[in-house]
Amino acid sequence: MSVIIIKKASTEDWEVIQNLGRETFYETFAKHNSEEQIQQYLAESFASEKVTNELKNPDSQFFIVYEAEEPIGYLKVNSGKAQTELQDETSLEIERIYVKSSHQGKKVGQLLYDKALEIAEQEKKKYLWLGVWEENLRAVNFYKKNGFIEFDKHIFRLGNDEQTDLMMQKILE
After folding, report:
1. Which residues are catalytic?
2. pLDDT digits (tens, 9 = 90+) for 80-89
3. What is the dihedral of CA 52, 15, 143, 166, to 10 degrees?
4. Strand pairing class (91-99; 127-133)
5. Residue 30 sits in a domain of what CATH number?
6. In which domain, by residue range, is 39 found?
7. Hey, which end of the chain has fewer CB within 10 Å, N or C?
């Protein structure tokens, strides 16, 4: 693997985020869901206007990881009101760590997680939290390995399908 660089995304990067989001979400979840449900989710969740608005939100931060000039994954973290659920000022939510399947198992996800941890520490957050699909065992095990514990569950809607996400947290103090 060549040099890996993580860059903070700006609104000009909306298309890179959109394409990475669609590709990595599809790679991760298409085999477990109907094509119709996946396509509906991708169209809604990664619509140009939605991605641009997320990038403009001052309580959200995106980071793109590149190998050479190729974007291979990204991180989205939320604080304050941008958090999808808890909206606790003392926490930082990891909403997305997505890495292309071609680069999984090469520590790219760990680099993105380390970036989220660095942000949480800089912002003096008391804990990190996230939601992860209970059937995505690779991701669940990744977060457990990094010190996260399950504290609740919530429903994630993929089209008409209700799926259970484990809510996990890592105390930083």
Report:
1. 143
2. 999 998 889 9
3. 50
4. parallel
5. 3.40.630.30
6. 4-171
7. C
